[in-house]
Automatic annotation (TrEMBL), chains A, B:
PROSITE patterns: 3HCDH (PS00067). The keyword Oxidoreductase applies. The lineage of its organism: Bacteria, Pseudomonadati, Pseudomonadota, Alphaproteobacteria, Hyphomicrobiales. The keyword Oxidoreductase applies. Residues 192-259 form the 3-hydroxyacyl-CoA dehydrogenase C-terminal domain. This is 3-hydroxyacyl-CoA dehydrogenase. Pfam families: 3HCDH, 3HCDH_N.
Length: 318, 318
């Protein structure tokens, strides 16, 4: 993919700098942009630069970043929302995902943003229309939903509210391409967007199979981790089935569409059962004690770093 | 994982040697076993060894096979079912997936197999009870469903029919572990088993989103290929969500279970619409002309070979 060069004349603002916001800061700084990072919690602010240095070094170790110091020099942690937004033409908001919290920060951003700035929210499932309706610049707000952590997983879902200006959506898409992410643009809002609807559909079936005792968590996980997931690491579900029948996707649908339809009909949507969740929690904590969760997350991120490097080297990256 | 050593005193029989059966032949030969391969079509038989040599060489190029000639020396293409089964204690059947075809070959195998041999069928969704009921040795039959191609994707689903002997199931599991595959054992039959039920749930949602115009095929594919699929290449869906909330899987279910339940309720199961399939076919053939399907499958297999080597080197392989 030929990428446009990012506009380095204006800084990007990061509002909310937990794991998602910090990852975003690294995405933009890595691409050559000045980044102004704000979080209301002093402890969170204090952790941003050490985390960024460690993560940038890990990327440098596999050749995904050339100059760690140059990246770090572009990261500026600030103490106020105003300082973060100063001069920013793009603002990435990553606060806690609850409608009231998103509404409050959106109004605060709205009050100080440049009128032509674009605001992308990291919301993973709540559409922007539910928390930007009262903003004076609501035409400049949209969803820019990443996968955690955004500096290792490039996809970002762009979802316009009914009032999002086409130019704001186009601007966000261009920026995301310029900084090396993979923007996916939805035509309109839907709860969960695409990514989490696909994950949810798979999870709902996985919980049902576990609940009904067909297999344990580890065995169900293995069907993806050592099976389907290998193809999905570089091809989507449609290309996968397109290559999986002699005559392509239409041939595949003719051969197997009936089987998949019957499977869907065999299920009635229901909530994940409480008792089953409890049992799954016990099974997971036996496999991975709670004290080791953080270390396992670091393992996951190392693996994702390796996959990013592998895909880039093999021409499988976007 | 500590693996048992495979029993090299007895050959493995491959019955049906299209892409799936040929991949299986390579799996067993790579692990040190003598393999007797049979397919009723002379043209198919003639293609087995050239394909195996090319595939084994690709594995050798990334360090996944040491000695191509030694692997090739274990592959024996034979002209009759009897010759394939001669002395075999394990038989992998990979004929066309239709109940009548599976029934006929199962009866033929039944007539000449050693009474204590185990027969695994590569069926991707039809349970063994539908095509082994009339076999004298039906207690020795089960499903051993791989992902295509089996020599590059290690998972294999073992699904017992109600009459499958526990010892046959255990023997198949031990063999699969010994030859480097990742066996997943189901407690009982269900249409589509686990892997294709998970794939089907995701596909059904993907088709619905495409049908309703939320995004194009390529954008929906990108949410997996450059998003969820990166994690799923080495972690299953349950471990993924276990690491994706501060308190683990129970915490994740408390935070997001409601959202996923609402998504499921918003869908009524329906067949993939004909007109939408046709449109998807056109979109795919614009992205990848029919004449290039074979080359793209070869690209997929090279990528899978690379991922296998990457996972092995990084300690992410089973």
């Amino acid at each position: 993919m030929t990428r446009p060069a990012p506009d380095t004349a204006h800084p990007v603002a990061i509002v909310g700098a937990g794991l998602v916001g910090s990852g975003w800061a690294l995405v933009f700084a890595r691409a050559g942009l000045r980044v102004q990072v704000y979080d209301p919690v002093a402890e969170v602010r204090a952790g941003i630069l050490p985390w960024a240095r460690e993560s940038a070094s890990a990327l440098a170790a596999v050749g995904l970043i050339e100059d760690v110091e140059a990246v770090m020099a572009r990261l500026h942690v600030v103490d106020t929302l105003e300082a973060a937004l100063d001069g920013a033409t793009y603002i990435q908001e990553s606060v806690f995902e609850r409608v009231d919290v998103k509404s409050e920060i959106s109004r605060a951003i709205d009050a100080v943003m440049a009128p032509n700035a674009i605001v992308g929210s990291s919301s993973s499932g709540i559409p922007a229309s539910r928390f930007t309706q009262d903003c004076a610049h609501r035409g400049r707000f949209l969803i820019a939903h990443p996968v955690n952590p955004p500096h290792l997983v490039p996809v970002v879902e762009l979802v316009p509210a009914p009032w999002t200006e086409a130019e704001a959506l186009a601007g966000a898409r261009e920026l995301m391409q310029a900084v090396g992410q993979v923007p996916v643009t939805l035509s309109r809002e839907i709860d969960g967007f695409i990514l989490n609807r696909l994950q949810g559909a798979l999870l709902n079936e996985a919980w049902a199979l576990y609940d009904e005792g067909y297999a344990g968590l580890a065995d169900i996980d293995a069907t993806i981790a050592h099976g389907l997931g290998l193809r999905w690491a570089f091809m989507g579900p449609f290309e996968t089935i397109d290559l999986n029948a002699p005559g392509g996707i239409v041939d595949y649908a003719a051969r197997l569409g009936g089987m998949y339809h019957a499977m869907a009909q065999s299920r009635t949507p229901r909530a994940w059962p409480e008792e089953t969740i409890r049992r799954a929690g016990e099974e997971r904590r036996e496999a991975l004690p709670e004290a080791e969760l953080a270390a396992r997350r670091a393992w996951r991120d190392r693996a994702l770093t390796g996959i990013a490097a592998f895909k880039k080297a093999g021409g499988l990256a976007p």
